[in-house]
Design brief:
Layout: E1 14-18, H1 22-28, H2 33-53, E2 58-65, H3 73-88, H4 91-95, E3 98-103, H5 111-124, E4 130-138, H6 140-156, H7 167-172, E5 184-187, E6 206-209, H8 219-231
Parallel strand pairs: 1-2, 1-5, 2-4, 3-4, 5-6
């Protein structure tokens, strides 16, 4: 695509963000890691609003993975308290008609947190300007394993034949059944891997890596990632 036409290229419909580098941001400043998570939460709110402003229809944030429970208990508890606090503030996004969805295994989360998640989803279910997805206690392998168990149970109960199983059926049993596949995945902090994030949904995603730590990630950085995406020729296995 010619450089002068890049601005006319379509925006990514669904952007996935791995919010990485909070702990390192705090460590560089001689602060406990939990302060980095607080700053990262501020960046999250800023980026959500800017994504909406520039026309991104779906944006998924990797907030807490199934592996993050291995972190020090005080850090995990600080993150959970942040979730509890900021879920209250999601009402601001509801006023802006942002649809809110959560993906992941909720069973290990507090009843209070689960209730707030359910409330936000219910209140915003009919909004269609933008969908904000928060992956909490989420893992891509865990999601696929759960889908396989659901399908196996349906086969056992006679609701499905083995011949019915194809990629569309698997897709329909994922947490993201009503959300399109990811077009662009952004990972700040210098790491260059998916870390078990949306591994089914990102089969044909474009990747954008940057050394910027998540708390320092700006609106301009989001725009730059989208511009890089626009420059790429997506063939989906074709020519």
């Amino acid at each position: 695509m010619a450089k002068e036409n890049i601005s006319d290229a379509p925006m990514p419909v669904h952007v996935g963000v791995i919010m990485d580098g909070n702990g390192r941001w705090a460590k560089k400043r001689g602060l406990p890691r939990k302060f980095g998570h607080r700053e990262g939460a501020k960046t999250f709110r800023k980026i959500v609003r800017h994504a909406k402003a520039i026309g991104i229809k779906y944006i998924t944030f990797y907030a807490f993975s199934t592996e993050n429970w291995k972190r020090p208990d005080d850090e995990v508890q600080a993150i959970m308290k942040l979730f509890d606090k900021y879920l209250d503030e999601l009402d601001d996004f509801l006023k802006e008609h942002v649809r809110i969805r959560f993906i992941g295994d909720r069973s290990m989360l507090s009843e209070s947190l689960q209730a707030k998640m359910k409330r936000s989803e219910a209140l915003s279910k009919d909004y269609d300007i933008m969908t904000l997805v928060l992956a909490i206690n989420y893992g891509g392998r865990d999601e696929i394993t759960n889908a396989v168990k659901v399908i196996a149970q349906e086969v056992k109960e006679g609701k499905l034949e083995i011949s019915d199983i194809d990629d569309r059926l698997v897709q329909s049993r994922l947490y993201t059944e009503d959300i399109p596949d990811v077009d662009l995945i952004i990972r700040p902090s210098g790491e260059q891997r998916l870390s078990n994030f949306l591994i089914w949904q990102s089969a044909y995603a474009e990747y954008y890596f940057t050394d910027i730590l998540w708390p320092d990630f700006s609106k301009k950085d989001l725009e730059k990632a989208c511009e890089v995406y626009k420059e790429r020729h997506r063939r989906f296995g074709g020519v």
